[in-house]
Structures are given as structure tokens and as C-alpha cells.
Amino acid sequence: MKRVEQLRARLKKENLDGILLLKDSNIRYVSGFTGSDSYVIMAPQENIFITDSRYTEQAAAECPGFEIVRWRAPAPGLPETIQAVCSRLGIQKLGFEKDRVTYELYEKLSKGLNGIQLIPVSGLVEGIRYVKDVHEVACIRKAAAMADEAFTEILGFIRPGVSEKAVERELQYAIKKQGADDIGFPIIVASGKRSSLPHATPTDKQIESGDFVTLDFGAMYRGYRSDMTRTIIVGQATDKQENIYGIVKAAQEAAEAAIKAGVSGKTPDDCARGYITEAGYGAHFGHGLGHGVGLDIHEEPFMSPSCERILEAGNVITVEPGIYLPDWGGVRIEDTVLVTAEGIEILTKASKELIIVS
Ligand SMILES: [Mn+2]
Fold it and tell me: What pLDDT sits at residue 184?
């Protein structure tokens, strides 16, 4: 119950009688529930899990220490259910996750609840999730190893004439074959000129000799995700391709070398951006250096020139600089890494040398 206790301490600090959680990943983090469409109310003494008949049996099994309360027809509606829980527990100041409550739900709750003050809050659970515990790191490490293995396998499948969508399907299967719960997030496969699109979705385009192929993918293991990108060459690389690849690789490694506990999230971004800018491609690295990864694929810290966070031991983050040249192509190289007191442990271990397949 350590997580629950930590959250309770935060409630006290925020002067709240309770909090209504709606975000699946936060609910999973505090309760262990692996489903969706449910709500948690945490109070100083009680943990209430609100769900409907699809999930009551599952929640009872997955969430020890939580009282399961059922809502939805024929049981009462959500405002009535929350009202009854709050009245029973004496909750007057109820925090809610403001980045999850829709305007519609807010209207419903503010009209339907009597004598309860709704207080918008954000980041209470995320603040605890920022530093991963040993169990969480083990899950991400496993997810990273699964993605590495799938990458080795997909290299044998990529050749001229194979479509991006076929690579996506095969990579998805390779990840799941490792025993992953699921892929970590929708897979990016971008070949040839399309590799200049940082978030390209796979198309029917066939891979051709001379193409860069950017693969951005990960696995999910016990809810935890890994995230990695490798860019490979099909056939033969031109000098320009080798040059751009070398710049991104050096920038990526420089950024990784700059990471350790106590360093600002700006520092590694500066490092990679500085390197790429000096090489003349600063205008073609448009996104931030990386992000936290865990139960969500994108979470704090978001490393960019405006990052306000300090990196801590136990952060799990991505390091993913890229250079994208419109109508030519692009390169991104990404690892998932664990921040330690001395530096980092790279969890995605696939080679970053330029791989050529034919
Ligand atoms: Mn990423």
C-alpha cells in the first residue's frame, strides 16, 4: 500500500478530503486494475473503486484494499454514486483530475453533487509515478528486451518490395510472440522520402533499394512500455545518408552521456540540439529530445529546451534526436534509458551502427 500512502500524504498537503481519479494509468498505478472506464475515490481512510457490471468481478480480484462500488443502470448514475460515497466518507473537498474531466462531466458533477466542492488538480499521482520503483523498472526492462528481440527478427523481413504495412504487421507479431501484453503504441514504419515525417503511419508504399527505413516501436509488459527507434538502410547508403546518420548517432550518444540524476531536463536536449545545429541541421530537429515512459507512453519529464524538471535516479526516459529533410528523408535514433546517480543504463540494447539490409 505504499503508493496509496504516498497519495494520501499528497492529499493532506493539498488540503483535500479525497480525490476522484479518472485516468486509467493512474488508477492502475494505485489500485492494480488493468481494465478501463472506471473511477477511484481515495480518502484518508478508505479506497473506493467505482465501476460497472463489466468490471466488478475483475476489480474485486485485482484491487485488494479497495471497496468495489457499482454504478450504471440499474444501479444509480455517476453523480449519485459519487455523492453517496462522499457523504458516507465525509468528503467535502473533492479533488479531480482536471486534465481528464470533460466539460460535459464537469457540468454533470457540479449540478449533481450537493455540499461537495470540486477542486481541479493535476499531477498528484504522476508526481509519484515520476520515479519508478524496482518492480516498474523490471517491467520496462523486460518490455525493452522484447522490442530488441523483435527488432533482430524484423531485420530479416525488410527488403525491397515489402510494404511499410507488411513490416508493421510482422513487427507487431514479433513483439507479441515475445509474450508482450501488447505493442507499446502504434508502430511507425517510414521508408524513403517518407522518413522525413517524424510520426508517419505505415502505408502501402513498397520499400525500395536505397531507402532509409525508420522503425519506431515498443512492447508493453504488465502495463509498462518500452520505446525505441532505429533507422536502417536498404541496399546501399549514399554519402549524404551516412553523413546524416552519423550526425544523429553522435548527437544521440552525446545526449545520453549528459544524463544523470540532478541534471536539468534541458541539458541533454541542449547537448543533442547543439551538436545537430553545429552540423548545420538545427532547423530540421523540430521536436523535443525525449520523454518519460512507463504506464503511459508519454509522461513526465518531457525533455526540451523549455523543460523545467530535474532528472532523478529512477526516471525512465527516451533519448531520440532526429534530422528530417523534407522530400529527402530522415533519421531518428531512440533508446529507452534508466537514469541513475552516476549516469544511465540503456535498456534498449540493439546496435546503433548503421545497419544495411538487402
Ligand atoms: Mn518516443
Answer: 98
Mean local confidence (pLDDT), 109-114? 94
Residue 166 has pLDDT above 90, yes or no: yes
Residue 161 three-state SS: coil
C-alpha cell of 331?
Answer: 533519421
Q: For residue 257, give every residue at least 6 positions away whose Cβ sits within 8 Å of its Cβ, in sequence order, or none.
A: 271, 343
- Alpha-carbon gap, residue 334 to 152, rounded angstroms: 16
Please give the domain boundaries of the chain with CATH numbers for all domains. Answer: 2-129 (3.40.350.10), 134-357 (3.90.230.10)
pLDDT at 2: 86
Question: Residue 26: which of 109, 100, 134 has the closest Cα?
Answer: 100
* Ligand 1 centroid from CA 235, angstroms: 27
- CA of 323 relative to ligand 1 center, distance in Å: 15
**How far is it, in rounded angstroms, from Cα 237 to Cα 145?**
28
Q: Could you report the per-residue pLDDT of 127-142, keeping only the tens digit for each?
A: 999 999 999 999 999 9
Question: Is-above-0.90 flag for pTM?
Answer: yes
User: Ligand 1 centre and the CA of 239: distance in Å?
Assistant: 27
Average pLDDT taken over every residue of the chain: 97
**DSSP 3-state of 13:** helix
Phi, psi of 285 (to 5 degrees): -120, 90
**What burial letters (b/e) apply to 88-122, b meaning 16+ CB within 10 Å?**
ebebebbbbbeeebeeeeeebbeeebeebebbebe
Task: Render pLDDT for 48-96 as a digit per residue (tens, 0 to 9).
Answer: 999 999 999 999 999 999 999 999 888 789 999 999 999 999 999 999 9
Distance 225 CA to ligand 1 centre (A): 10
d(C-alpha 204, C-alpha 38), whole Å: 38
> What's the order of all strands across the beta sheet hosting 67-70?
67-70, 47-51, 39-42, 18-21, 93-97, 117-121
The pLDDT assigned to 1 comes to 55
pLDDT at 210: 97
CA of 187 to the centre of ligand 1 (A): 11
Nearest by Cα to 159 from 241, 240, 233, 242: 233
